[in-house]
Amino acid sequence: MELVKVNNLRKVFPKHKVTAVDGVSFSVNEGEVVGLVGESGCGKSTLGRSIIRLIHAEEGNVFYKGEDLLKLPRRKMRSMRRHLQMIFQDPYTSLDPRVRIGDILEEVFIIHENFSRGERRRKAEEALETVGLGASYLNRLPSDISGGERQRIGIARALATDPEFIICDEPVSSLDLSVQAQILNLLTDIQKRKNLAYLFISHDLGVIGAICDRVMVMNAGRLVETGTCENIFKDPKHEYTKRLLDAVR
Amino acid sequence: MALEIRGLRVSYNIEGRGIEVVRGLDLDINKGECVGLVGESGCGKSTVGLAITRLIPERKGSITAGNILLGDKDVLTLGPDGLRDVRRSKVSYVFQDPFSSLNPVFTVYDQLKEALPDKRNADEIISGTLESVGLSGIIGNKKIYPHELSGGMQQRVMIAMAIMPNPGLLILDEPTTALDVTVQNQILDLVARLKDEMKLSVLFISHDLRTVFRISDRVFVMYAGKIVEKGLKQNISLKPGHPYTVGLMDSMPSFERRKQKFNAIEGRAPLFSELPKGCKFYPRCKFRVDDCALREPGMEIVSGEDHVSRCIRIKEIALDGISKS
Questions:
Q1: Does residue A178 sit at the B interface (CB-CB below 8 Å)?
Q2: Cα–Cα distance measured from residue B198 to residue B34, given in angstroms and rounded to the nearest whole number
Q3: What is the domain partition of chain B in residue ranges?
Q4: Which residue from B207, B255, B264 is facing A209, i.e. has the nearest CB?
Q5: Are both A79 and A169 inside the same structural domain?
Q6: What confidence tier does A203 reach under pLDDT thresholds 50, 70, 90?
């Protein structure tokens, strides 16, 4: 079943006269992992952020279960975000360095739930367990833990509200290859267990090929080729796709 | 030989005590050869790179033992003048992040000129170098600043600065990690071409086996401050001789093995302050037996004298590269 449908989305940065997202349409089904691949500056992150309104897109629609997110009042959009979450690239800058891990996770429940303090802490512990970490992390600061562990916290935070759709924006690009493998395993496990839908953004077709069902190739603000992983890898049509493929062979 | 490191030991001052992070390392690079040094974050590989020209700040740590021979000179015995000469014209570095390596308030041209030991004919040399690193588009443009260039172009500027003094040894420390994969390959191809044209010797430091295999003639795998495997690239990629190397190979994502779990190395690299006794990889190793914890293994032959590995079980276990499980 169709979960998210993006229709003719457009985002212009007028100051730089750049059309970062130029009339993009696609949809993501329930429990589906869709890869979005392209080089730096092709507009893939802007697209991801526009979907959950971290960036304001001028034109188009984003339907979540039939409801247009771009037309929702602000307050309603805020509570809607519990269903659509995001994991960011850089686990060093996406966690506040002065806030303890426990408080970072509890904050989610302050925003989205009406839990008592005890419940929040218990929920934070649960969130840590889902990503393979224990309660011993609650009192640590982001600077006390490794890059891979930080990205696990980013994932725990995104999962805390039980979303159905997660935008993963280059979640493994800043990690060592060995840690990248652990995090990709974790993301795949959780996806299967909870039947989540991912929009997985990356510049690396190797990573996308390893975990995605479908791929969308983006260049200069447009989707230039879309298809199943099988089709894109075995029989790429667009020149740009071929170039990206050469890079990982 | 372009570089020979023997028994290198480096300690960092951590919380008032000296913690050894390079624990007796041997490494050699032949003239005109590219050697890849691969390992996870925190294995000490960048420290090795920095030690070669004694760039480790004194308050942070010190080289406690070993020799670093560049040609006939031991860098560790050089006085200030000799050291300056080595840093100026014998060994060049390219670091991971080109944007923070370049100074944002000076033009690219000024920074290139600064890197030239001899300023005569500077314009001519700069133009020639920019041409050879694939930046002919900015030749003659003396007003361009680093932020006006893309990440890949910035890294080309760094490489131009590094090769201009015509160094014998070029050290690249994760030069492609901050770049897109497509740009990574362009930079790797550029380094390979320059290496051949200029007969450069290259030390290529990275956590990414894909890039290391693409560019290196020989590969050294580093774990917890020591080399655990070394050999020709083709030997290691076909028949890795250490469980850690296999783990690194299994971590490479690929379409061919899609929808399979990565056979990832569990856990993380150990802290230097709490290294296990015996084999340092023992706690994360899938092939461990009790004997592994007794003493740190020496180098065992895998296939021929040039391909060796620090694993006592290398004769009895079959490591077949990317495992199927």
A1: yes
A2: 13
A3: 3-103+166-309
A4: B255
A5: yes
A6: very high
